[in-house]
Design goal:
The structure holds two protein chains of two kinds. Chain A contains 23 helices and twelve strands. By secondary structure, chain A is α/β, with parallel strands linked by helices. Chain A has a six-stranded parallel beta sheet with strand order 1-10-7-4-2-3, with helices on both faces. A four-stranded mixed beta sheet of chain A has the order 8-5-6-9. The longest helix of chain A is centred in the first third of the chain and has 23 residues. Chain B has one domain: NagB/RpiA/CoA transferase-like (Rossmann fold), CATH 3.40.50.10420. In chain B, strand 5 and strand 6 form a beta hairpin. The radius of gyration of chain B is 21 Å and the shape is globular. The relative contact order of chain B is 0.19. The chains are: A alpha/beta, B alpha/beta. The interface between A and B is large, with 92 and 71 residues.
């Protein structure tokens, strides 16, 4: 069951190599890079088209941001209100401090129903707590029913994108996985299966249909939990969500405590910004809403597990807590030049991309190599902030987390970078030292620009200790005259003369 | 009161002990948006068609015929519907009543006919509250063809009006299903395929 590393937010997480190490390997995967470039390009275009339709898009973003901030900054009150209303509607509410506690609650509920299997709707929260592994350990089969999650599960793989988790697989690979694996866990794929997406989707429909019809227990997450009604909302495309939320007798929803919205009317904002940001659609095919068990309609036993698992730690950081506004749309992944090239697996977490780079180290802490490196998995270009429907300032948060990582690693042997920064600090502290350094650089510039050196404009490698920096970058050739020297010579540019 | 709950509440209060200011939400709820150069019904029809759903518009007296034609076009023979639909359009199909049908029974039925409660023009969405005319949720989910009858008066311009209408009528806490086109996936190379687990054919009949 575990051909892949633990990438959740659990105690089992032992840490992957740092982002830059995995990214180097992933970058060499040209098939993945081509898939990702195509896929993110398509989805960027779709999103832009449907966002442009709305004249009030920026107002909607501001509203979404403000509503989430209201929810989070009075989180205790909103959770109490949600709980009271959900209970009044007939739901059972459970609380889980961490992944282990949440998994134990779910396993016990499934056992109490006498079930040996559950059907699952795609849910980031249950991936985060590695619920499937916990269910397997308890002898319970968990069937992922979202097409991409099915591909990931059958391929013993882990998701590389929040919205399209199997984005790293192409159609030929999917066909192979279906032909090889479906028969081991249920109805086999048709022998004449082709790699047409239509045929592959049909194979998934047939494979999962019987599992839906016989299921006694379903497990879901939720996109929103509404405080003033106690309702849950699930947004999806395929109808597998509706199957899970409707057909079984028992429904268990694992919901992060940050999912709460103050009021049902707030949905008018979020049901506009989420589908447009996520799949680039005006509205996703299916949105299901339920408030406790419905009379004679759907599951009779409705359980809600409210999950902390590090969220209160994020909430405690005034500069980091805005990350809890995230509605998991994945727009930031689709515009990120780093994600597009390295793919989701480099991030070593169920939360990849820019939002993963700020969320994962806050949820898991910054003690492992991968979590320390994630705040650096960005060029700080800012595209993620521009598209974020809840206006999370990811670039500023990355800088904040870099500071935290550096602060935490003070003491012990200084690194090369720390030495360079120290030397820089010493030089900038006194203008005479700076002028001397400028002259030295200008002298080097003259030499480097001379015909003998080929008159080049960039330096491909610098001597140690800067060699680490120039290993992946070109440095401009230093100018032949420093700005300070030029200023003195020309009286601040007033006596501009023929340059040498 | 569980221990976990007390601990989490304590953590939240401690996390917020800097008392971050609670912003004012300046958004004005429930405002009309408009439907541009088309009226609401025309916009709705355009947007439903854009999802690759079938859609047609008939007068009040043409509904029974339109339902029969939609079912015929989809090759549906055995058709389930709740009592209200069967009573209103008795001759439109070979009806199967929902007498405690199991999920397996439903899986052997070709199509379902429902009404809706609200529809949204700009997003091409129909909303079911699973009250009279719509049946329980499983009915409009398991059969592969869904024919949905929407009254022109049920169509609002955009999401804010739909949300306001559901709240005002007290329907918002019923089980709700928002449907925008047939079931779809883009999970394989982002190549859109209509039809996975939900009804692969959605046929909307607009009345009036």
């Amino acid at each position: 069951m575990t051909g892949h590393p633990h990438v959740g937010v659990t105690d089992a997480f032992l840490g992957m190599p740092k982002f830059q190490t995995v990214a180097k390997v992933e970058l060499a995967n040209s098939v993945q890079r081509r898939n990702l470039a195509h896929a993110t390009g398509v989805i960027r275009g779709k999103r832009a088209a449907v966002v442009d339709e709305l004249e009030n898009w920026e107002e909607l973003r501001l509203a979404a941001e403000a509503i989430k901030d209201v929810a989070l900054r009075r989180l205790d009150e909103h959770l109490e209100e949600f709980e009271a209303n959900a209970i009044a509607a007939g739901a059972v509410v459970h609380w889980a401090r961490d992944a282990e506690e949440a998994n134990r609650i779910v396993v016990d509920l499934v056992r109490a129903e006498g079930a040996s299997e559950v059907v699952k709707v795609k849910s980031m929260a249950t991936q985060e707590i590695e619920l499937n592994e916990a269910l397997a350990a308890a002898g319970i089969d968990a069937w992922e029913t979202d097409l991409a999650e099915l591909i990931v599960q059958l391929g013993d793989d882990w998701p590389s994108h929040i919205l399209v988790p199997a984005i790293h697989r192409n159609r030929a690979e999917v066909r192979e996985i279906f032909l090889r694996e479906m028969g081991k866990v249920g109805r086999p794929a048709p022998q004449d299966l082709t790699d047409e997406p239509r045929r592959l989707a049909e194979a998934a429909r047939l494979h999962l249909r019987d599992k839906f019809l016989r299921a006694k227990v379903a497990v879901s997450g939720a996109n929103f939990a509404i405080a003033d009604t106690g309702s849950l909302v699930v947004v999806e495309s395929e109808g597998n969500g509706r199957m899970c939320l409707t057909l079984p007798e028992t429904l268990i929803s694992v919901v992060g405590i940050e999912k709460v919205l103050p009021s049902w009317r707030d949905l008018e904002v979020f049901l506009q910004v989420l589908p447009r940001s996520s799949t680039g659609e005006r509205e996703n095919p299916y949105t299901s809403m339920w408030t406790g068990p419905g009379a004679g309609d759907g599951p009779r036993n409705v359980h809600i597990v409210l999950l902390d698992n590090g969220r209160t730690r994020v909430l405690a950081d005034p500069k980091g807590r805005d990350a809890l506004r995230c509605i998991r749309c994945s727009a930031c992944l689709n515009v990120c030049p780093v994600y597009e090239r390295t793919g989701g697996h480099s991030y070593g977490s169920v939360y990849p991309g820019p939002i993963g780079a700020v969320l994962t180290p806050q949820l898991r802490g910054t003690s492992s190599d991968i979590d320390k490196s994630l705040p650096y998995a960005s060029s700080l270009c800012g595209a993620c902030f521009d598209v974020c429907p809840v206006r999370i300032d990811i670039p500023s948060m990355l800088v904040h987390l870099r500071t935290r990582v550096v602060d935490e690693s003070r003491g012990g042997m200084p690194s090369g970078e720390q030495l360079v920064m120290k030397a820089g600090g010493w030089m900038f502290a006194d203008h005479r030292r700076l002028e001397a350094a400028g002259k030295a650089a200008a002298g080097a510039g003259k030499v480097l620009r001379s015909k003998r050196m080929g008159g080049k404009q960039v330096l491909r490698s610098l001597p140690w200790p800067a060699s680490g920096w120039s290993g992946a970058r070109d440095a401009p050739v230093p100018p032949t005259e420093s700005f300070r020297a030029w200023w003195q010579r020309t009286g601040g540019g007033h006596e501009e003369d023929g340059h040498e | 009161m569980s221990e976990a709950r007390a601990v989490i509440m304590g953590r939240i209060r401690e996390a917020l002990d800097d008392r971050p200011p609670v912003p004012e939400v300046t958004w004005r709820y429930g405002l009309p948006v408009g439907t541009g150069d088309l009226d609401a019904v025309e916009r709705f029809i355009e947007r439903v068609a854009d999802y690759q759903a079938r859609v047609d518009r008939v007068g009040t007296d043409g509904v029974g015929e339109a339902i029969a034609a939609a079912l015929h076009a989809a090759g549906a023979d055995r058709v389930v519907a709740d009592a209200a639909v069967r009573a209103t359009w008795p001759d439109s199909a070979r009806w199967v009543a929902d007498d405690n049908l199991t999920t397996y029974d439903l899986d052997s039925i070709d199509a379902v006919v429902t009404t809706a409660t609200v529809a949204i023009a700009n997003t091409g969405t129909i909303i079911l509250d699973h009250g009279d005319g719509q049946g329980r949720r499983a009915l409009s989910l398991v059969p592969d063809v869904h024919v949905c009858v929407v009254g022109a008066g049920q169509i609002v311009d955009d999401v804010p009006k739909a949300v306001a209408r559901l709240i005002d009528s007290g329907l918002h806490t019923r089980p709700l299903t928002w449907i925008s086109g047939p079931s779809a996936t883009s999970d394989i190379e982002l190549d859109r395929v209509e039809g996975v687990h939900g009804p692969r054919t959605l046929h909307v009949v607009v009345v009036g």
